[in-house]
Amino acid sequence: PVPAAEEGEGDVQGLPRDRPQRRIAQGAPPPRRDPRPHPIRQIERHEDHPSDHDLHGHVHYLWDIVDICQRVYDEATTSTQAHERVIFLGGDHSISIGTVSAIAGDEPDGVLWVDAHADINTPDTSPSGNIHGMSVAVLLGEGPKPLVDIGRPGAKLEPGQLAMVGIPELDPGE
């Protein structure tokens, strides 16, 4: 079990790790349930509508992920306003849309992106339509508007605020 933090010391946020993207990945094992309580666990499921693809391009589970990222943003903002150190643990990089949006403010911030993928696809360049491959593009202001506008409208990072490590190659559209 994760011990409770002393007041003002910090927080650990557990996020849903059984989103649909994981299940549709080829050969993905069934999701494991973590027995610890998760403050952001109850997420209302949304149905994708054909008109969503006309408005936002080739993306899967847009409204589920918008809902999760907005809740993550709200939790991260609350923690940073309380001057807490917080660690977010989640299933894929789409949650970074909420966490980075919360910490990206008026002062220059930077993000160290450690991954085997650059995650800078857009709905037009993504081979799969999975949002976890679009997270950096969304943070740079490119992608479905409901995701780009999490927290506040527009880009949360400039390219110079981003350092990427561990990326062996880019997808053709990236």
Structure explained in plain terms:
With 174 residues, this protein is α/β, with parallel strands linked by helices. Helices cover 28% and strands 10% of the residues. It is built from 6 helices and 4 strands; from the N terminus they run βαααβαβααβ. The strands form 2 sheets. Strands 1-2 form a two-stranded parallel ribbon. It has a two-stranded parallel ribbon with strand order 3-4. α3 packs parallel to α4. The longest helix has 20 residues. The N terminus is likely disordered.
Structure summary:
By secondary structure, the protein is α/β, with parallel strands linked by helices. 28% of the residues lie in helices and 10% in strands. It has a two-stranded parallel sheet with strand order 1-2. Strands 3-4 form a two-stranded parallel ribbon.
- Radius of gyration over all CA atoms, rounded: 16 Å
Mean pLDDT metric? 76
Principal-axes shape call: globular
Order of helices and strands: EHHHEHEHHE
* Percent helix range: 25-40%
Descriptive terms for the model:
174 residues, 10% strand, single chain, 4 strands
Topology summary:
Elements: E1 10-14, H1 20-24, H2 50-56, H3 62-81, E2 85-89, H4 96-103, E3 111-114, H5 135-139, H6 145-148, E4 162-165
Parallel strand pairs: 1-2, 3-4
Helix pairs in contact: 3-4
